[in-house]
Amino acid sequence: MSRPDAVIPTLPPLAGLCSFEEAGRSTLSVEDCVSWMKRHHYLLVRLHEIFTAKISAEPVFELKTAFSLHAYLCAEHASAFRRRVGELREPPLGLDVVPHDGLKLVCDEVLGSPSHTELVLGLYEVVIPALLQSLKDYRQTTNLLADAPSVRVTRFCQIELEEILAFGQRAVVALVNDASRSNLATWIALLKQALVSASGVSGRLTQSESSSPEMALAPHYSAVPFHYDPVPRRDSRFHDSFNGGVNPEAFLYDEQFHPRDKVLMMLYKRLREIDVPEMMASILQQTPGKPWKYYADMSRQLWDEARHSLLGEVGFVQLGLDWTKIPINFTWSLNLNTQLKPWERHAVLFFIEQGLMPRTGKRFEWEVAQNSGIPLAAVIQDFDWADEVLHAQIGREWYVKEFGDLTEAMKYGDSCWSQVMGHWRDYLDRGLTQHDNWWPEFYQSACSTMGVSPDPAALAFNTTYESTRADLKDISASA
User: Which runs of consecutive H residues, i.e. helices, occur in 176-291?
Assistant: First the structure.
C-alpha cells in the first residue's frame, strides 16, 4: 500500500487520449455520431464501387494499379465503420440507405465520368477532399473519450485517405491541362453544389458556410445510367497484346533451364498478372447482392494481384531491363470477361488459385527464385506464395461453400476454363498479332545486361499458347 503522503507522479490524464476540455464536449449524441458515420460509410462504399468499376477499361497502368489499391483501402475503412455503427445500439444498421440525394448525385456523376480526366478531378479534387474534411471535423467535434472507438476508426481512415489524395493530386497535375479544367468548370461546380445540398458530407454544413453559388442539380453524366465496360484496355507501353507466341509456364517447368533464366519468365508472369484485377473487377461489378464481406475480401485479393504485377515491374527495373519491349498478353482477362458469366469467372479464378497450392505451384516458383542468385526474386516469390495461400482461403469461403465439396468445385472451375475460346488462330488470321516469339531477343538482351552468357537451349525456346493453356493442359488448336 502507498503511504498517504506519497507523491503522485504527474502523468497524462485520461489514458493520454485527450485533454479534459476535449473529454468535456457534449456536441454529439450517439444518434448524431451514427448518422455522421453512416455518411462516411456511404461515400467509402461508393468510392470502392467507382474505383473498381474503372480498373478494367482504364488504360494507364499507374491508374489501373492505384485504383486497385484505393478500392481495397475504401473497402477496409467501410468495413471498419460498419463494425463501429453496429456497436452503437443500431441494429438494424440501415447502412444500405442513401443518406442524401446530393451525395448520391455526386457519386453517380463521378462514376459516369467518360474519361480519366473527369474521373481524377471528381475523385481527387471534390469527393475525397470533402470526405477528408468531414473526417477531420468529426474528430474535432465528438467527445474524444466517450467516442474513442469511433475516433480511432476515423483517424486511421483519415491517414490512408490523405495518402490516396497525395497520389490523386499528382495524377491531376499529370493528366489535367488548363483547357480541360476550364471545360469542366461547370461540371465541377455541379459536384460541389450537390455536396452543399446535402449540407456537406457531414450533413452539418450550413448554406452560409459554402462559397458555391446555388445552381440546379440536373444530372450531367449520370443522366444516362452507368454502363460497366468489361473490356480491358492498356496504354501504349503495352503493345501486341494479343500475342500468344510464348508460353512462360512451359519454360518455367522445363527442368533443363537455369533458375536465373526462369526468373525472367516469372517476372513476366508477375507483370502480366494485371489481367487478374481486370477480370476480378468484372466479377465484383457484375455480382450484386452479396454480403459486404464478400466485396471486401475479393477487393483484398484484387489489390494483391495488382501488387504482384507491380512487383514484376520492380523486378525488371532492378535488373535494368525494359519490360515495355515485351508484349504483355491480355487475352485471359479479355476472354473471361467477354465469354463467361461472373460466377463462371470466379470458378476459373479459384481453379487456378487452388492449383497453385501443391509443391509444383507457388512453392516451386519460390524455390526457383531462391536458386536464381537474384535476391529480390526470392522476396517477390515468397510474398507471392503467401498471398496465394490467402487467396485460396478466400475462394474456399466464397466459392467452394456454394458446392460443399472441393472436388466438385475444382471440376466446375476446370470445365468453365475449358469453355473459354482462346482464339489463338483467329487472332493470327485477323491480323491482330503474328504471335512473334519475343523471348530469344529479350533473353539475349537480358543476358547482355546482366553480364552472363545465354544458354543455347533457353535461346532456342519456342513453345506457344496455340495448343496449351497456362496450366499446360492441352486444348484444341482451333480454340
Answer: 178-183, 185-197, 248-252, 259-272, 275-285
- Cα–Cα distance measured from residue 124 to residue 169, given in angstroms and rounded to the nearest whole number: 6
Residue that the C-alpha cell 522476396 belongs to = 379
C-alpha grid cell for residue 423? Answer: 482464339
86: how many CB neighbours lie within 10 A of its CB? 14
Domains of the chain: 25-223 (1.20.1260.10), 248-459 (1.20.910)
Q: What's the CA angle centered on 171, arms 170 and 172, to 5 degrees?
A: 90
**H helices, E strands: number in the chain:** 21, 0
CA angle 370, 376, 381 (to 5 degrees): 60
Q: What is the mean pLDDT of residues 220-224?
A: 96
CA atoms within 13 A on the CB side of 424: 17
Q: How far out from the chain centre does Cα 35 lie? A: 28
Q: Under a CB-based contact definition with an 8 Å cutoff, are residues 362 and 385 in contact?
A: yes
The number of angstroms, rounded, from the C-alpha of 263 to the middle of its chain's C-alpha atoms is 25
pLDDT at residue 139, rounded to an integer: 97
Runs of H (alpha helix) within 56-147? 61-86, 101-111, 116-122, 128-141
In 3-state terms, what secondary structure has residue 452?
coil
Query: Would you say 134 and 201 are in contact if contact means Cβ atoms under 8 Å apart?
Result: yes
The string of pLDDT tens digits covering residues 5-14 is 678 889 999 9
Backbone angles phi, psi at 474, to 5 degrees: -70, 140
Contact 362, 352 (CB under 8 A): no
Strand partners, 468: 474
C-alpha cell recorded at residue 360: 509444383
Amino acid identity, position 151: V
- Reported as a pLDDT band with limits 50, 70 and 90, residue 92 is confident
Q: In whole angstroms, what is the distance from residue 75 CA to residue 297 CA?
A: 9
In angstroms, the Cα distances linking 264 to 136, 142, 248, 255, 442 are 47, 54, 9, 15, 10
Do residues 195 and 19 touch, judged by C-beta distance below 8 A?
A: no
> Do 42 and 99 form a contact (C-beta atoms < 8 A)?
yes
Residue 320 near residue 310 (C-beta atoms within 8 A): no
* Gap between the Cα atoms of 317 and 365, Å rounded: 20
Query: 361: which DSSP letter?
Result: I
Task: Using pLDDT thresholds of 50, 70 and 90, give the confidence band for residue 216.
Answer: confident
Cβ neighbours around 427 below 10 Å, total:
18
Lowest mean pLDDT among 60-64, 239-243, 283-287, 354-358: 354-358
Block residue for cell numbers 476508426? 153
Distance CA 474, CA 319 (A): 34
With a CB cutoff of 8 Å and minimum separation 6, the contacts of 259 are 368, 369, 370, 371, 372, 373
